[in-house]
Structures are given as structure tokens and as C-alpha cells.
Specification:
Structural class: alpha/beta
Number of helices: 5
Helix content: 25-40%
Largest sheet: 6 strands, parallel
Number of strands: 8
Distance between the termini: 36 Å
Length: 156
């Protein structure tokens, strides 16, 4: 189970509930503090993995974030495409960070390249097509929360 705080917590709240979340089986807390205000995470003793989301966009973010977070959430929409996402993944892994691959709301065509990055990730959340009223033709099939590999027809 993961908890996405969406930049809404304070460092005090994180300190107060970190152990309780760990006891409940929470594996990761995503973006607990506001982006740009997350320097308070330096040296915090949280038993649950901390993941940067809104704070990470490019490889240039990794040196600072590696001191603060255990993992990053890579979204192809934020990295400028698949090449930037793969570069970001490699930089984070080289810095000793773990990976999550996430998405914005989008069609299966937007999720398919993210599946390439997902091969390197611990956590994958590519459910964007499920939030749409209608996906593309030949979209990715989801069965009980598991994504199938995209069919060649999806790519055109």
C-alpha cells in the first residue's frame, strides 16, 4: 500500500505518523511535503520509503533529491518523453534511489512507452486509461489491476 500526500503534509505530521503508517503496512509515502519545500526531509528518520513526485522533473533534480528521498516517481509527461524518462531512471538508480513509474490521465498510447521505464521500477501506476470515458482503439487491457503488454496495433 502507498500513501500519496500530494504535497499536503508538514514535516511534523510526517514525524508523528511515520511509525504508525509503517505498522499499517504502508510501503511508501509519495510527496509528503510541497515541492521546493522538501529540504526538511534531510536527516528525517522515517521507517516508510519517501518518494518524490512533484519535486522531480529531470536528471538535474537527482543530486538534491537523492539526499531527501528514497525513490522518485517518473512521469513521461514531466520528463519530456521516453528518452528523458530513461535518462532520469538511470540517474536515480545510479544515485541509489528506487523507482516508481506513474502517469497523468491519458490514453493507452501514452502509457505504452511508460511501460519501457516500468521494467526498471519497483512500483508501477499506469492506470491513466482507466480514468477516461473512452480509450483509444486497441488500448491496453487491464485485468484485476494487471496491465497486458500493448498490442502492435496500438502503435499504428
Amino acid at each position: 500500500m502507498i500513501v500519496d500526500a500530494n504535497e499536503a503534509w508538514s514535516i511534523e505530521l510526517l514525524r508523528d505518523i511515520g511509525a504508525e503508517l509503517d505498522a499499517l503496512g504502508v510501503e511508501m509515502i509519495e510527496q509528503p511535503l510541497p515541492a521546493g519545500s522538501d529540504d526538511g526531509l534531510a536527516g528525517i528518520d522515517c521507517p516508510v520509503l519517501l518518494c518524490a513526485d512533484e519535486s522531480v522533473h529531470t536528471v538535474a533534480d537527482i543530486p538534491r533529491l537523492a539526499r531527501l528521498y528514497d525513490m522518485i516517481n517518473i512521469k513521461i509527461d514531466k520528463t519530456g518523453g521516453l528518452t528523458g524518462a530513461l535518462e532520469l531512471a538511470d540517474a536515480a538508480l545510479a544515485a541509489g534511489m528506487q523507482l516508481m513509474v506513474g502517469c497523468m490521465v491519458g490514453t493507452s498510447l501514452a502509457m505504452a512507452p511508460a511501460m519501457v521505464v516500468a521494467a526498471k521500477a519497483r512500483i508501477v501506476d499506469l492506470d491513466g486509461p482507466l480514468w477516461m470515458a473512452k480509450d483509444r482503439e486497441n488500448g491496453i487491457e487491464f485485468t484485476k489491476g494487471v496491465m497486458a503488454l500493448p498490442e502492435a496495433k496500438l502503435w499504428g
